[in-house]
Amino acid sequence: MLLWFLPIFLLLIMIGLPVIFALLASPIALIMLEGDQRNVVAGLYRNLYNGMDSFPLMALPFFMLAGEIMNRGGITLRLVEFSQAFMGHLRGGLAHVNILASILFAGLSGSAVADTSALGSTLIPAMEKNGYTRKFAAAITAASSVIGPIIPPSGIMIIYAYVMGESVAALFLAGIVPGVLVGVGLMVMVRLMADRYDLPKAERIVRKDQTITPLESAVSFVLIRINIAAVLYAVSGLVTWIVPMAVNGWLIFGLALPIAHAIAQATKARVSKDFRLVCKKAVAPLQTPIIILGGILIGVFTPTEASAVAVAYALIISFFVLRSMNGRDLIDVLTRSALSTSAVLLLVGAAVSFKTVVSLSYAPQILSDYILSLSENPLVLLFLINVLLFIVGMFLDAGPAIIILGPILGPIFVDLGVHPVHFAIIMSVNLTVGLATPPMGLVLFVASSVSGEKVETISRAILPFLAVEVIVIFLITYVPAISMTVPYLAGFLGCGPEVGFLACISPTP
């Protein structure tokens, strides 16, 4: 009889009860109807608290806080100007700028809603002013915002890792290439639409007579050379991996610094002063994802510690380098972050309680038997599960959907030989795209609020971009190397070169 909690849960969602309370109320209602005396209700609330009391889960509020600080600190405008300087001259230039800005902003916030709100308020009016229709501007903003939760840091991947017991670092690394692939696909679609829909031509947009403080200029000067030296160091590491050399790593990095300076100076002579200033003003904010991923990769800190470092870095940059925030702004940022975090943590805690009833109901086993009865071919089952996730994403936000379906579907496909990290990316990307999918996609409503355009109008305009994202989902599904290569090379899949790449990404059932 416990299996009936699923219809009750769906009924409560349909009548408008918030997901958090539906997750708790559906098993309680069924238990009360059955007269169960096993103190399951007390156990549910005990699990609610235990579900929030987790060190790895602390990464979520810290990353949300870092994103709020960066957004309030005026980082959005700097990223937009940086994107315009690079891509504004292309046909459909501001649409390309919108997509590139989303890719860059994804490394700061990890939230599709924050992306739509922050970038949309800046770019939608600018696109409309430059000859784009408002519905097209809102559609491309909503479509590109789904990159936010795919490229690390990602809130939904932290939730998935916590619920399913996977490595946060592995999921972060696995999301890099799929996120970039979504962005590139959207840019290709914009280029295909440029001539057919006569999208406005543009010039390279670089604001004239910009200023930068001496401190920010000095910080950018140093960071640019460190980044170039780091790239040179990585290339030398690849060379030493092919041809082993007994050379100290710090020595290589030290030798790379003067070369990096020479490269920076040579590049400086080829570009205008205004273009250099645009790039310099974007350097400090763009270090956030580099610090997060770099620190995790070299083992300096865990993902949770990386989130705290990201907050500290965002505060230093916003208060002392850019001087774009003050104490009053910080109070508002902390308040907004606390409210957002409390809602997410309550949702995760409720989901842990929900999982208790799921395990008692034998729902995973029943659903597993049903899915396996449809076909014995894993490729066919992956297709069917993508269709299911896409439909679920139309009505349910990515976080709750992962919390509810992850524990049910994950073990099924792992038993079929799909790597758990690979399935995590399939599920995360699919449900993230659902945020921009009619009729209930959350970012559609945010884009409507920002642009003043009707949701129905945006929904029709976004269809070509959704088609691109669906193609990317199936590429990720059937070509595991797209998402698995980076975590494999970084050693986060739990198997080394002696096992082999193909054997590592496709474990034997």
UniProtKB/TrEMBL annotation:
The UniProt entry lists membrane topology as: Multi-pass membrane protein
Which keywords does this chain's UniProt record carry? Cell inner membrane, Cell membrane, Membrane, Transmembrane, Transmembrane helix, Transport
Q: What is any one of the record's Gene Ontology cellular component terms?
A: plasma membrane
Look up keyword Transmembrane and say if it applies: yes
Give its localization: Cell inner membrane
Tell me where the transmembrane regions lie: 6-33, 54-75, 95-124, 136-163, 169-194, 215-235, 241-263, 283-301, 307-325, 337-358, 378-396, 431-450, 462-482
One protein family per Pfam: DctM
Q: What broad class describes the main subcellular location of this protein?
A: membrane
Key word Membrane present in the record?
A: yes
Q: Which GO terms describe its molecular function?
A: transmembrane transporter activity
- Annotated ranges, domain TRAP C4-dicarboxylate transport system permease DctM subunit: 8-482
Q: Which residues form the signal peptide?
A: none
**PANTHER family given for it?**
SIALIC ACID TRAP TRANSPORTER PERMEASE PROTEIN SIAT-RELATED, TRAP TRANSPORTER LARGE PERMEASE PROTEIN
Role summary:
Part of the tripartite ATP-independent periplasmic (TRAP) transport system.
User: What name is this protein filed under?
Assistant: TRAP transporter, DctM subunit
